[in-house]
Specification:
Elements (H helix, E strand, L loop, with lengths): L1 H35 L2 H16 L3 H14 L4
Helix pairs in contact: 2-3
Length: about 80
């Protein structure tokens, strides 16, 4: 039983580390794009992807619609 609990705990820790790493990486990319003055270009390129995701249902549709509204300037 203890082995199973350790396995589940390690699995949760690995997932949390991956999520934190992706969040840090995304923040660094956004900051570098902003510093280079390319953030507007990145927003323009991400717009069609966000609109396509917004047409889906479920969680990805919600994420796409929210991102699309943000990119269009509606907050």
């Amino acid at each position: 039983m203890q082995t199973l609990m350790l396995f589940l705990m390690y699995r949760v820790l690995i997932i949390a580390a991956v999520v934190a790493g992706v969040a840090i990486l995304a923040t660094v990319v956004i900051l570098l794009a902003r510093r280079a003055g390319r953030l507007d270009d990145a927003k323009r390129m991400a717009g069609p992807l966000a609109r396509t995701l917004g047409d889906r249902g479920g969680m990805w549709g919600t994420v796409g619609r929210t991102a699309s509204r943000y990119l269009d300037g509606e907050r």
